[in-house]
Amino acid sequence: MDRIELKYGCNPDQGNAGIYREGGLPLEVLNGRPGYINLLDALNGWQLASMLKGCTGLSAAASFKHVSPAGAAVAVPLDEAERRMYFASGDPSPLATAYIRARGADRMSSFGDFIALSDICDVSTASVIAKEVSDGIIAPGYEPEALAILKRKRKGAYTILSIDPEYRGGERDSRTVFGIEFTQDPERYAPSMADLGNPVTKLKDIPKDAALDMMVALASLRFTQSNSVCYAYRGQTIGVGAGQQSRLHCTRLAGGKADLWHMRRSERVLSLPFRPGLTRNEKDNIIEQYLSDDPEIDVVSDWKGFFTRMPERMEREEKKAILASIHGVSLASDAFFPFADNIIRASRSGVSYIAQPGGSMRDDLVIEAADRAGIVMFMTGRRLFTH
User: What's the CATH class of domain 2-174?
Assistant: First the structure.
């Protein structure tokens, strides 16, 4: 039996924390000392990144926080707006591009993430990670110079894990809750084009780029705490709604994040006159405030010192105009939509393609709502709850 002692459990007062597996563990700690939640994020993030690579053939990355992806992506090349909104420079490798996208999906939520990479970490990717606030990384290996770069993070305490890419998990999943042992067969689902083989709406076609986005959304749901809904666009998640008791709240939460992602691409935001010397995280925070509709934000006092000149606020009508121009977004849900209100909300965030299991008593009403909104809907017949 192989065991790794952890820094602590879910909370610092929970000692005697560790991971073990009879026959040996498939991972190695190369640097730092991980905690319990770090390992939950690492193992789930690795499965997601590996799955995305397997179903798309592209390098993939995941940015995990509290056992759900803050972002996940494959290596679709960055356009100019994305380079600016993600603070990208130079000529990033495909793997670095995947992580830049995963991190940029929701930079506020990704702060202090655990990173998972589908491929051996190269210098390009390590150089990107060196500039971000992160708790650790898991990958199937590291180029020597990339490992040296990462070992310098957090004053040498950055958690670096390597995992055997051939490891496929056990024959049974088990956990102990309140002293009681739970067991089940492991979930072996991986998304494929077969999931898009049952269109139920009047419109039935999905272009290749949107189908790729749907693979990203479906794979991400597989490792997102339920209830969950995921919006995806240009090879990455742009809005993940995780762990909500109401599916409509999932759709709203993820849709709000997707809306912010689209507005961050606007020239008004990309051209904000930030004062030189601000960190990426300071810029992220102020952009979040800038795009907020919160009336409590005092522009003069809250923004003082961040800009070389005070920018005009983006008014609600301008935001509506931006969002009205958006279309082609893919959305996946881990369980059926019980009411048409989810479809109406999703359509307001540019959703053109939906994949969901189906099986609601009101499927007909949901399909009618999708038809009215001009959405192509697929019913996969497979629920993807994760707890």
Answer: alpha beta
For this structure, is 227 an active site residue? yes
Active-site residue, selected from the candidate residues 7, 66, 202, 283: 66
Residues of the chain with CATH 3.40.140.20: 2-174, 190-263+323-379
Per-residue model confidence as pLDDT tens digits over 97-141 = 999 999 999 999 999 999 999 999 999 999 999 999 999 999 999
d(CA 258, CA 323): 10
CB atoms within 10 A of CB 45: 29
How large is the average pLDDT for residues 339-366? Answer: 96
Task: Report how far apart, in Å, the C-alpha atoms of 60 and of each of 120, 193, 286, 304 are.
Answer: 11, 18, 29, 39
Locate 217 and state its tokens: 């959304």
Does the annotation count 327 as an active-site position?
no
- Are 137 and 118 in contact by the 8 Å Cβ rule? The answer is no
Cα–Cα distance, 26 to 22 (Å, whole number): 11
What 3-state class would DSSP assign to 222?
A: helix
CATH of 190-263+323-379, one of 3.10.50.40, 3.30.200.20, 3.50.50.60, 3.40.140.20: 3.40.140.20
- Exactly one of 31, 38, 44, 227 is catalytic; which is it? 227
Q: How far apart are CA 291 and CA 262, in angstroms?
A: 11
pTM: 0.96
What residues are paired with 176 via a beta bridge? 181
Helix (H/G/I), strand (E/B), else coil: 317: helix
Which residue in 53, 65, 257, 319 is the catalytic one? Answer: 65
- Tell me the helices (H) and strands (E) count for the chain, helix number first: 14, 15
Answer left, alpha or beta for residue 88, where phi above 0 means left and psi between -120 and 50 means alpha: beta
Name the amino acid, one letter, at 209.
D
Tokens 């959304």 map to which residue? 217
3-state class (DSSP) for residue 184: strand
Tracing tokens 């590291």 back to the chain, one arrives at 142
User: 16, 155, 208, 387: which one is catalytic?
Assistant: 387
Cα separation, 12 vs 286, whole angstroms = 31
Query: Token pair for residue 233?
Result: 């666009």
Q: Verify whether residue 262 is a known catalytic residue.
A: no
pLDDT 10s digits, 68-84: 999 999 999 999 999 99
